[in-house]
UniProtKB/TrEMBL annotation:
PROSITE patterns: MFS
Designated name of the protein: Arabinose efflux permease family protein
Compartments it resides in: Cell membrane
Protein origin, superkingdom: Bacteria
Keywords recorded for this protein, A-Z: Membrane, Transmembrane, Transmembrane helix
Alphabetized Gene3D superfamilies for the sequence: Multidrug resistance protein D
Membrane topology: Multi-pass membrane protein
Length: 87
């Protein structure tokens, strides 16, 4: 690559996605959180019967998931800051 081409490439502004595309993408990504917790709900009845546990015990699955999610957020945040993408 010649110096002139290199200087033109570095001076070009970075390409960004249109606002509508970014908004739709963020909306779709935002649905994954609720989807991951709501997915097992329809199966609670049959899972409780298969494991021979009460409904209250099956509802502890949600509490365990949310507790683990909250606890791991305390570790994943600082870890991603420490070894994440560098400028």
């Amino acid at each position: 690559m010649t110096p002139m081409i290199r200087s033109r490439l570095s001076a070009a502004p970075p390409r960004t996605a249109p606002l509508a595309v970014t908004t739709v993408l963020l909306a779709l990504l935002g649905m994954f959180g609720p989807f991951s917790i709501d997915t097992p709900f329809p199966a609670f009845q049959s899972m409780g019967e298969d494991f021979e546990v009460s409904d209250a015990s099956m509802q502890l699955v949600v509490s365990a998931y949310l507790g683990a999610f909250a606890l791991m957020s305390l570790f994943h945040g600082p870890l991603s800051d420490a070894i994440g993408r560098k400028p």
